[in-house]
Amino acid sequence: MEKNDVQRVSFEDLKNFCAQAYQKVGVPDAEAEIVADLLVRSDLRGVDTHGVTRLPIYIQRLQKGYVRPACTISVVKEKGPTAFLEAHGSMGHMAAYRAMEKAIEKAEEFGLGWVSVKDSGHFGVAGLFPMMALKKDLIGYIVSNSAPMMFPWGGRERIIGNNPLAYAFPAGQRQPVVLDFSLSVVSSGKLILCRKKGERIPLGWALDKNGLPTEDPYEGYEGGGSLAPVGGHKGYGLVLVHEMLTSVLMGGKWTKNIKSLYEEDKSGIQGTCHSFMALDPDCFIGREAFKKNMDRYIDSIKESAKAKGTDEILVPGEPEYRTELKLLKEGIPLPPNTVKELTAMAESLGVSHPF
Amino acid sequence: MEKNDVQRVSFEDLKNFCAQAYQKVGVPDAEAEIVADLLVRSDLRGVDTHGVTRLPIYIQRLQKGYVRPACTISVVKEKGPTAFLEAHGSMGHMAAYRAMEKAIEKAEEFGLGWVSVKDSGHFGVAGLFPMMALKKDLIGYIVSNSAPMMFPWGGRERIIGNNPLAYAFPAGQRQPVVLDFSLSVVSSGKLILCRKKGERIPLGWALDKNGLPTEDPYEGYEGGGSLAPVGGHKGYGLVLVHEMLTSVLMGGKWTKNIKSLYEEDKSGIQGTCHSFMALDPDCFIGREAFKKNMDRYIDSIKESAKAKGTDEILVPGEPEYRTELKLLKEGIPLPPNTVKELTAMAESLGVSHPF
């Protein structure tokens, strides 16, 4: 294997490696398994920006005491189908996992569940949590606030996040529909990449530090600018709504007070807030009938006439599912930089690695 | 008053006029009051595309038997905080009103309510229904499918709608936040207006009948094209999700089977499907604390630095609220065409009119 080649590692090997790394810094075994699975599943689904490339920073933050190694969740309030949880700076992945578990339990009992959790942290890929509802044939939903990266509409202070939402819907013969997106037109990573390549960006992606449209990727983010919200004022409105459904609802940290993963943060509580919903189709058409209806609906979309130059119409989650099948067979591709960072981390932790 | 002047009519007079028209075609008094209030409130909030200008078509559809004059709602299923309703082709405004009432009752009992209703019809302005939750200091939400006006992403058949969503959040000293939007970049009305004026449209608003971007407003809608979804594939995904949360969940009519208000439809069931949620902040930070936190959050957004050339940062619902205050004082402005149509309708119904 050449030094500059992409290396391929199987899902299982990479997951075991991550779990061991988490265990080494004090994460309980069962939780290390869960977080490692979520992390490597992100790579498996092609969302590699939120996968193992983040492991070193997650481990560092655990070592520095910025995150609790053992997940501690307390119930602040609980009433019927709702629960209000506090995560005390636990790992975002675990806080979100436990909260979604609870929303699912609520939906199994009441037909519907809404669980909000505050004082959580960065949780990676939003869509993986509503997908937990699929095992029970329930509909899952998540909404979260996030670190600040955008201006309010008409503003020039970076005080709102691209606050993601995600949904998962079970289907029958078809694959589940999973919609997962953030409320910026593109990610900050995309702007940084364009800046590195010396490329301009299309108008509509970002604003400069004065709040004016820019084609310069540096001005649009690293230079103090703002990612532009999806759909202009519509996406801006939804960003605010997502804040109100999470931190404002719980009295948690607003986006403007959340530090990014890469900032020093001795408070020990990154403080992200999330809300989760699960809904049981048995309260409506019925679980089995719903899955059949999903199949029929997906078919009707996919089988409709294609635009000139388009071969296939996709539904949300389809590209990620195809990547998953492919990478389960071929292994997960890791670029040389990632392998280098993970190897260095493994050696400093004294963990054996699969590279 | 010149024939070509805009006429101003007070909210109360216009509402009474609409209520009388509805009563004349067999709508029970109490329901006529509710629908008239919703209709004229749309104009009052500046959403005049969905206000009294639609009264003649609503009345015509009632006369032709395409809509039930008396609202008939049956409960298909009910479990804890959820309910599944069937509206049997009742007026959309009434079906949505009753369903939101039920979601609010559920939230008062359980902290959370989700109510879905099928076989409804056109209901006007989505945001008015979640706003019903504000009287109880609850959070309100609505999602709906709609008549077909868009292609799937990569398609060229008009089989999906611009399926709106809306949220309402109570505040304290500040006005409630009301976010209400459809998932197309612009409305079909805007394209029709551009075509009438002989103007081109910006790329990104619409696709032609082959599914390719167009700057021609006729090609983009009336000529068989498609409104473009907000945020490209993100908005497209949300359109599908909104269908799954409504018609797919209930086994109701999918968008592709829903006729527009302006098509003949002897089935008597337009068939729109909606879902409603209400959430009680008492299950989280508490109602009073939530309203205070909303105020603080709104202040933090509005008081942040402005972009170059921007005087004020707005939050969702603020422009509509200001229009409401202004028009309550000045009266609702009606263009000559609308006055002419409403006068003709009033005369044929034998109803006195305020023009």
Q: Report the C-alpha radius of gyration of chain A, rounded.
A: 21 Å
Number of strands of chain A: 11
- What is the rounded distance between the termini of chain A? 10 Å
Strand order, largest beta sheet of chain A: 2-3-4-10-5-6-7
**Secondary-structure element order of chain A, as H and E?**
EHHHEEHEEEEHEHEHHEHHEH
Strand content of chain A: 15-25%
What is the general shape of chain A? Answer: globular
Question: Any overview of this molecule?
Answer:
The structure is a homodimer of 355-residue chains. Helices cover 37% and strands 15% of the residues of chain A. In chain A, strands 2-3-4-10-5-6-7 form a seven-stranded mixed β-sheet. Chain A has a two-stranded antiparallel sheet with strand order 1-11. Chain A has a two-stranded antiparallel ribbon with strand order 8-9. Chain A starts with 6 loop residues before the first strand and ends in a 6-residue tail after the last helix. The radius of gyration of chain A is 21 Å and the shape is globular. Chain A has helices at residues 11-24, 29-44, 55-63, 92-110, 188-197, 218-222, 233-244, 247-250, 287-302, 318-330, 336-349; strands at residues 7-9, 74-79, 82-86, 112-120, 139-144, 165-169, 177-181, 206-207, 226-227, 272-279, 332-334. Chain A is built from eleven helices and eleven strands. Chain A has 355 residues and is α+β, with helices and mostly antiparallel strands. In chain A, helix 1 packs across helix 2. The interface between A and B is large, with 75 and 76 residues.
